[in-house]
Input
Amino acid sequence: MTFADALARFAHWPLRIALSSVFLYHGLAKFPALDGLADMMGMPVIAVAALASMEVLGAVLILLGGFGKDWMTRLGGLLLVPIMLGAILMVHFQHGWNSVNMGTGNMGRGMEFQFTLLMLALYFALKGNHEVARKEAGTAVRKQDRPAARREEVGSRASTQVWP
Output
């Protein structure tokens, strides 16, 4: 086993932290400004409050899901997907892909960042905690995934040993 292999089981954490930090930041920032955001977005205050709640809850579930609960990860992703679809379709799509203001006239309002967040949320909604989910369901490693039986010569007799 290489060092990278040993770290592979932690590879989901940077993705969880990146996605959750964005939604926690933006979701929590909406609560003190619900009235102003509702006016700016042309939405009822209750809709903006629901949006902020979905952002915060989705982010928290993505993080908590990393500790083993598959349903938390999947639900967190499912809460964030419609938010990003709405942001892309209602605001960013009309400005194209580029979200960096490089003199193209879109003032940095393109959809590349929102698309990336959408793909991360979709990943967690679809994949969940695959390994953890398999353990929770009690599904063992498939027989074909195990190393083949090996023969060991022990003294003058041969024994067959099957990997657990």
Summary: Residues 68 and 132 are 6 Å apart (CA to CA). The chain is about 60% helix and 5% strand. The first helix runs from residue 3 to 7. The chain has one domain: 8-161.
